[in-house]
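JOB MANIFEST
job_type = single_chain_structure
chain_count = 1
residues = 569
[input]
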Amino acid sequence: MFNTTSMTLPDPQPNGNPPSEQHTKWLYLFIGIAVVINFTGLFVPVMGPDGALYGSIAKNMALHNNFADLFAQGKDWLDKPHFPFWITAVFFRLFGVAAWSYKLPGVLFILLAAFYTYKFAKELYGKQVGLWAALILLTAQHILICTMDVRAEPYLTGLIIASVYHFYKALGRKWFLHLIVASLFAACAVMTKGIFALIPIAGAIGGDLLIRKDWKMVFNFRWLLALILVLFFILPELYTLYTQFDLHPEKVVFGHQHTSGIRFFFWDSQFGRFFNNGPIKKANGDPTFFLHTILWAYLPWSLLFYTALYQFFRRNFKLPKAAEWFCVSGLLLTLLIFSVSKFQLPFYIVIVFPFFSILSAQYLWNLKLESSVKAIRITQLIVCSLMVLLVFALHYFFRPQNIPVLCWLLMVLAVVLFAVVTKTGVNGRFRVFFQCCTVVFFVNIYFNLAYYPALLKYQADSEAAFWINAHNPEHLPVVQTRIGFGYGLDFYADAPLYFLHPGGEKLLPPKPYILYGEKEFIDQYIPGGAALKPLQTFDSYRISRLKGKFLNHATRKETLSQTEFVLIR
C-alpha cells in the first residue's frame, strides 16, 4: 500500500508561509463563515422544476406514510431512486413540509462532504491542506447553488467522498469495519442516482492501485466482499421498485405497460441516458461541455484547479509510484464518462468537487515560487473582480425589490472582512485566497438574500400556492392543469389537489372547485354547464432557463406568460 505519511507536509514556517497557529485560526474562521453562507439559501422558495418535483414526491411520501412508492402529480413516477426522498420525507415528518426542511438534509450532506474532504486530504497531505480543501469546497460556486437549489447532487457529493475515504482506510490493516461503512455509503449513493454513482468511487480507488501497479491489492478478495455488501445494502431499493412496478405490469409508465423498475434502475436509467436511447432522452452531448462548465461552476477556483491538475501531471507523470492518484483518477474517469455521454447537465460535475478541492489545496499549499505566486494572485484577483462586477451588473439590470436589511448588513460585513484580510500581514501568500473567499461570501449573500427571492416571484406555481393557502377559507379542492410542470403548487398547496390529465375529466372533484393553469388554456376550457369566476392571475417565467431579455427589467414584461386561478361553479 502507498505510504501516505510520506506525502504529509510540514506546517508552514515564517520564510514565505504564515505561522501555523495563526493561519489555522483564520482557516477555522473562514470555514465557519462558509458554513453559515451555505445555510442562507434555506428560506428561498424551492425552485422548480426538479427541486419542487422532488419536494412534492417526498411530501406525498411523508403525508401518506408510504415510503415504498413514488408518485408525481397523481401518477407512478420512475426516474430517480428512493434514498433522497426517504431522507427528505423523514425531515418532513420531524419538522413539517417547508422549503427549509426540504433543503436542510441537502445542506447537511454538503457539510458531510466537507468533513470527509478534510479527513481525506488530511490523510494524504496533512491538516492544513485538509482545512484548505474543505474551505475551497464550501466556497465553490455550484456547491453554494446546490445548497439553495437542492436536488440529488448534495447527497451524492457527501456519500461519494465518504465512501472513497473509508475504502482508502480499508486498504490498511484494520480494514473490515471501514469496508462495511464504505460499502454502505456507496450503496446509498447508488440508491440516490443509480450504479453510475460508483464511477468516481471505483475510479479513485482502482485508479490509484492500477497506476501504482499494486496488483496484490487490486486482486484482493475484499473488493468482492465490498460488491456483495453494496448489493445487500441496496435491497430496500430493489424491493420497492419490484413491488411498485414489476409486480404490476398493467401500469402505464413512459407510455407503455410491462415496465420493469429493476431493469430501469440497473440499465435504462444509466446506460439509456448514457447512449441517449432510453425512455428519458436529451439532445446529443458535447465532449467539451464539462470542461467549460467547470470554468463557472467551480468559481473562484476553476483556473487554480486546471493549473493544479497540469502541475500534478508535470511533477508525477514520470514517477507515478511517488504520488497518490486517488483524486486525479477519480475525477478524470468521471469527467471522461460524463463527457462522452449523450445526457449532460451542469450540476452532474459537482459530485467530484471534493477531488477538485483536494488537488487545488495541495497545489496552493506547495506554491512557493515567487513568479507562480504572483501569477496566481493576479489571476485570482481578476476572477474575483469579474464576480463582483457580475453582481453589480445583475443588480443594475434585474432590479430586485424589497431587499432585506440583513442582506445589506451582511454584504457590508463581507466588504469589511475583505479589508481586514487585505490589511493584515499574517497570511502572507495565502492572503489572496482568503480575499477570494470574502468575494464568494459577498456574491452569494446577494444571490441568496436578494436575487433568488426576487427571481422566485416569477415562479408562478409556488406564488399561486402561497396565494391560495391564504385565500381559500372553504378549503375547496384545487385542480391543476399544468402537467409536467407546476410542481411548486403541488409542493406548497394546503388544499386537496387534483390533476387534470388528458382524458381524466371524470376523476375531477364535484363542483365547486378551483382550477389552475395557463391563462390561454383556461380561456378555452369551460366544463359543460359551468361558469368561470376569475380569482387571481400570476406572472410566469421558466426561471431555470434564464434569458437576457427576462433579466433586463426594461424588457421583462415581454417575456412573461400568465397563469391564473378560476372558480368553477
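[summary]
Confidence is low (pLDDT under 50) at residues 1-16.
The longest strand covers residues 532-540.
exit_status = 0
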